[in-house]
Write a structure and sequence with these properties.
By secondary structure, the chain is of the alpha+beta class. It contains 5 helices and 3 strands. A 3-stranded antiparallel sheet has the order 1-2-3, with helices on both faces. Helix 1 packs across helix 2 and helix 1 packs across helix 3. The two termini are about 30 Å apart. The mean pLDDT is about 90.
Length: about 140
């Protein structure tokens, strides 16, 4: 849902995302099967956009590992300094990742620390969507 303010994000539904910066791209990488993740990672340029951009493969792997263990990913101003995001996986009836859900905010409106406090509510929504798709609560990675 696009906001109505004067400031807009560069990302849009349907446009390509930088896999090393976007929360939803990172959640997809984190929860994809190993062959898919490796194939996608080969196309990452690790271009720096902000001081928070991940620019090293080892650092991205560390970030993805943290995302898998906590169940969600984040973008801490990694593409656009004034925007942060949390993202969660959506699973299908077979327990495979089929989509990602992200919640994005301007840092001035909701800093990342405050956005993180809402992750339990966002997880509930992601799980409800997954269950609507037939997910039984077990994921296969």
């Amino acid at each position: 849902i696009e906001g109505t303010g004067a400031i807009a994000m560069g990302s849009r539904v349907g446009l390509a995302a930088n896999l090393h910066t976007a929360g939803v791209a990172k959640v997809i990488l984190a929860f994809s099967d190993e062959p898919t993740r490796r194939r996608l990672e080969r196309g990452i340029t690790f271009e720096r956009f902000t001081p928070n951009t991940i620019v090293a493969p080892a650092k991205l792997e560390e970030d993805l590992s943290v995302s898998r263990s906590r169940g969600w990913a984040e973008d801490d101003g990694e593409k656009e300094e004034y925007i942060n995001c949390v993202a969660l996986p959506i699973f299908d009836a077979n327990g495979h990742l089929c989509a990602g859900m992200s919640v994005t905010s301007l840092r001035a409106v909701m800093p990342l620390e405050q956005l993180r406090r809402h992750v339990p509510d966002f997880k509930d929504v992601a799980q409800r969507i997954s269950k609507e798709l037939g997910w039984n609560g077990e994921q296969i990675t």
